[in-house]
Amino acid sequence: MKQYDVYGIGNALVDKEFEVDDQFFEDGGIQKGFMTLIDEAQQQTLLEQLMQRFELKKKAGGGSAANSLYALSQFGGKAFFSCKVANDEAGHFYMQELGSLNIKTNLSTEREDGITGRCLVMVTPDAERTMLTSLGISQRVSVDELVPQALAASEYAYVEGYLVTSPSARSAVLELKRQAAQHGVKFALTFSDPAMVEYFRDGINEFIGDGVDLLFCNEKEALLWSGESSMEAACAALERKARRFAVTRGAQGARLFDGERYLDVAPHPVHAIDSNGAGDMFSGAFLYAITRGHDFATAGRLASLASSRVVAQFGPRLRPEQHGHLLAELGLAD
Half-sphere exposure of 307 toward its Cβ, with a 13 Å CA cutoff? Predict the structure, then answer.
């Protein structure tokens, strides 16, 4: 048995989440439903506006891959996370969270001066999430953050598509993929956001290269990436690059391809409040299940149920004890 179930790399961000109205987007010329990169000064100005007009709902450690590894670790999986935070208050906060969650990391007490990445998460009454991110020091994630020994001791390597925006992070992903192949570690990728597929297509395709072992995306991302207009055609395109994949479809559940056949996962109807983190939870729960030897159908059921619970609350992460309840509900508890 490997020391780690999943070795992930991603942006380390401290999230501040607000419930807003569509008028805020119109006033600020903000593209709803996408993640947009902004600089620190812009973000500070917008944060001040948000604090004046709306209530801060939640502050928590975040980042796409980090959210998935959080879910995996709370279900009982073993995770290692490579990232970059600064020697500032937000960096201290982030490190404390990782330590309390039993997620191993490359981070040490000696860190560079700078600003830790931050993300403003805005949720509208239709549960759509919009994000404005200042990567800070995280935009300098590089091969220096890789820990080859931990990667070689993992079953899966997991990469978030958001890393495509940084040249040094792209180099790190390609080196990680090379090392994973060298050590027989399976490579998993999530597209992360429609904006990554729409505006950084060449970089995403560079991550994919000659193929990935497991791909996560939502239906909108699959259609954008493939250039197709139907789910069936998009899945056919995915088959040519991903040995196995999972496409989430919101209220319609998910469609899985296990390398041989397609499986449709039923949704769990809920009153959605906040879609932030739904895809991250799906990936984390799914990875936990398959690294525990469960088949795609079982992994899909757990991932779908867990995602439905996340969207019914504010924030991208469930409370630690909720994970055990989900496993018990599906008869998967040890």
Answer: 32
In the chain, where the domains are located: 4-10+64-103+138-329
Alpha helix positions (H), 210-317? 219-226, 231-239, 278-291, 296-311
CB count within 10 Å of CB 310 equals 28
Query: 153, 2 in Cβ contact below 8 A?
Result: yes
Report in angstroms the alpha-carbon separations of 291 from 24, 29, 75, 76, 196: 42, 43, 12, 11, 27
Give domain 4-10+64-103+138-329's CATH architecture.
3-Layer(aba) Sandwich (3.40)
Q: Which DSSP category does 93 fall into?
A: H
Q: Report which residue type is found at 251.
A: A
Reported as a single tens digit per residue, the pLDDT across 247-292 is: 999 889 999 999 999 999 998 888 888 787 899 999 999 999 999 9
Residue 278: partners with Cβ closer than 8 Å, 6 or more residues away = 248, 307, 310, 311, 316
What predicted TM-score, i.e. pTM, was given to this entire model? Answer: 0.92
